[in-house]
Amino acid sequence: MTAYFMVRAQVMDASVKQDFDHWYREEHLPDALREFRARRAWRGWSALDPSVHHAFYEFDDLARAQAIQGSEALKRLVAEFDRAWGNKVTRTRDFVDVIQAVSA
């Protein structure tokens, strides 16, 4: 079943939110999709906390998602993120293994 790599970023400096959004849209999300070889990727801003940004990368299964851990691709993307945003944006990462899906 499907699995996801999720990145939760929090923009600590509100003055960079617009630049962060542009950078993520134009550079980071497309680069990560390609580098991770994910099925697809999407992102959005929290409706409860406007400083929180979520990005999702979809994989065929958990093993494929977790294979990005320690990869050169992830190292490059993390280094670029750190270079661009330093301590202005913090982030955490998680993997989710979908165990059930229902449809209407």
SSE layout and pairing:
Blueprint: E1 3-11, H1 17-36, E2 40-45, E3 52-59, H2 62-66, H3 72-85, E4 89-97
Antiparallel strand pairs: 1-3, 1-4, 2-3
How many helices? Answer: 3
Low-confidence parts: none
For the record, the CATH architecture stands as: 2-Layer Sandwich
Q: Averaged pLDDT, please?
A: 97
Report the count of strand segments.
4
Largest sheet: number of strands, sense, barrel closure: 4 strands, antiparallel
Give the structural class: alpha+beta
- What helical percentage do the residues reach? 25-40%
Q: Which sequence of SSEs, written as H and E, runs from N to C? A: EHEEHHE
Roughly how many Å is the radius of gyration?
14 Å
Structurally, the number of domains stands at 1
Terminal Cα separation, in Å?
19 Å
Strand order of the largest sheet: 2-3-1-4
